[in-house]
Design goal:
By secondary structure, the protein is mainly β. It has a single domain (8-30, 45-108), classed as GroES chaperonin (10 Kd Chaperonin, Protein Cpn10, Chain O), CATH 2.30.33.40. The chain has one helix at 8-13; strands at 23-28, 51-57, 78-81, 87-91, 94-100, 104-108. It has a six-stranded antiparallel β-sheet with strand order 4-5-1-2-3-6, with no helix packed on it. The longest helix is centred in the N-terminal third of the chain and has 6 residues, at 8-13. It is elongated and about 55 Å long. The relative contact order is 0.26.
Length: 109
């Protein structure tokens, strides 16, 4: 059982979040403030980055034989995902994404 307390901000706020099954909670990375040419971007022009950090994981998908599969990602992994993956939600001014492990495209090493 993994809970989202590895993040210092989450530990201070007492955030405990346990996703179910093969779901993963991700904290999206901040978007770029400036372009390569130095132009400052307003919030409305920023693209939401398709990468983030895993802050909580579920127990794994329930298999036909009654056992649970192990997830390929772990808490603290930096991952890439499609920009339309997951459901966004907010807890204590912290924006998080909840998605299935299948929506994660790669782990950044």
């Amino acid at each position: 059982m993994a809970v989202a307390v590895k993040d210092k901000k989450a530990a201070k706020s007492g955030l405990k979040l346990q996703p179910l099954g093969d779901r993963v909670v991700i904290e999206r990375e901040q978007s770029e403030e400036r372009t390569a040419g130095g132009i400052v971007l307003p919030d409305s022009a920023k693209d939401k980055p398709a990468r983030g950090k895993v802050v909580a994981i579920g127990d794994g998908k329930l298999l036909d034989d009654g056992t649970r599969s192990t997830l390929q990602v772990k808490i603290g992994d930096r991952v890439l995902f499609s920009s339309y993956a997951g459901d966004e939600f907010k807890i204590n001014d912290q924006e998080l994404l909840l998605m299935r492990e299948d929506d994660i495209l790669a782990v950044i090493e």
